[in-house]
Specification:
Butyryl-CoA Dehydrogenase, subunit A, domain 2, four-stranded antiparallel β-sheet, alpha+beta, four-stranded mixed β-sheet, about 400 residues, 12 strands
Length: about 400
Amino acid sequence: MDFTIPREISDYIGVLDAFIETEIKPLEEENIRFFDHRREYERTDWDNGGRPKEEWEELLAEMKRRADKAGHLRWALPTDIGGSAGSNLGMAIIREHLAHRGLGLHNDLQNESSIVGNFPVVMIFHAVASPEQKKEFIEDMITGRKRVAFGVTEPNHGSDATYMETTAVQKDGGWLINGTKRWNSGMSNASHDVVFARTSGDVGRPKGITAFIVPVETPGVDIAYMHWTFNMPSDHAEVHFRDVWVPDSAILHEEGRGLECAQAFFHENRIRQAASSLGAGQYCVDEAVKWANKRVTWGKPLSTNQAIQWPLAELNTEAEMLRNLVYKSAWHLDQAHHMEVTHWVAMANYRANRFVCEAADRAMQVHGGMGYTRYKPFEHIYRHHRRYRITEGTEEIQIRKVAHDLFKKFRD
């Protein structure tokens, strides 16, 4: 087996680092209030429901424009929409590297913006949308001219999506949608929302759930409020759909097969979240080691104490094991249909998300009082990554996926 990072990826990482230093770092320094101890306080429009400030959104948009012009933003996308058809393995290595650099405009945590874009919804449209939908949406989603949100979770149903209560019934040559979505991500300035609703089939079964592309200005769509969360600003809305009518052409993919789109979204996101969690966690470990080596207490470096050494050595070992698991899972995702390797993606995701929280907490502890302040990045890293142990399938759900694959091997 060859564990060497492919030469083309390692070379490309060097190109990305140079781009960050020449194009992105100067832009970040001009807007440092969004990245120093003020962070989310400057990013959040507190008097407008906790939504992201327009200035913050525009800064992220400028970063993306520069990355797109340089040929980086679309790296993972297919060649026919301007990408380089980057592999899942390559994307995992790159996302880990960018997160390992620490906080910055090059790879922001709060809304997952990066110079190498993660476009799971674009990938879904590219795979299953109608020719008309592709023409209308794909390029505009990449450039930001259209913002497409994603509504699966409901007040009474999260990971148990097959029990969703939102329904759509046929009427007047189209569909009438009724229901409520919670944690409807991306709604702060969305132009459209991909809404999942049951159109047929039995409760608890995946068949019969349909994905609809709904313009947010459609009568009956009510963005009730944004949920204020552990990590602000909020882009997670409570949205009511009351007799929202859309035509047949609003269906994404096929009637009754919407959850296939959701599963593809989750697998694309989970492996990249795992890579980012690994990189951010390794950053926390490295920063804690640097601090322990230079911090002198009782006349000697803090790092001479085994109480400091051993937890960090354990975490560093965990990072090394995770690195192999994340890369191997990403490689598997490149070789097979995503549903065939769901257990690999689940293992990588839940372990990496748990690791980064432990690493951020340990870095705070090693830094002492300073680690608890907002002048250090650890609280921000912890707050951001803690949500991944819940969102897009809780870690308990993902462990269940792993257990299902494990135990079916030994059934009679």
